[in-house]
Amino acid sequence: MTERRQLFAAATLALAATPAAAQPARQLTGRTALVTGAARGIGRATAIALARLGADIALLDIAEPEAIPALRGYRLASRAELAEATRLTAEQQIRTLPLVADIRDAAALRAAAQRIEAELGGPDLLVANAGIAINGALAEPAPEAWQAMLDVNLTGTLNTIQAMLPGMRRRGRGGRIVIVTSVQARMGVNGSGAYAATKWALTGLMKSLAAELGPEEITVNAVAPTAVETPMVHRGGDAPQPDPRRAAAFAGHALPIPVLPPEQIADAIAFLCGPGAPTISGTTLDVNAGRSAQLTA
Ligand SMILES: NC(=O)c1ccc[n+]([C@@H]2O[C@H](COP(=O)([O-])OP(=O)(O)OC[C@H]3O[C@@H](n4cnc5c(N)ncnc54)[C@H](O)[C@@H]3O)[C@@H](O)[C@H]2O)c1
Question: Pfam families recorded for this chain (predicted)?
Answer without folding.
Answer: adh_short_C2
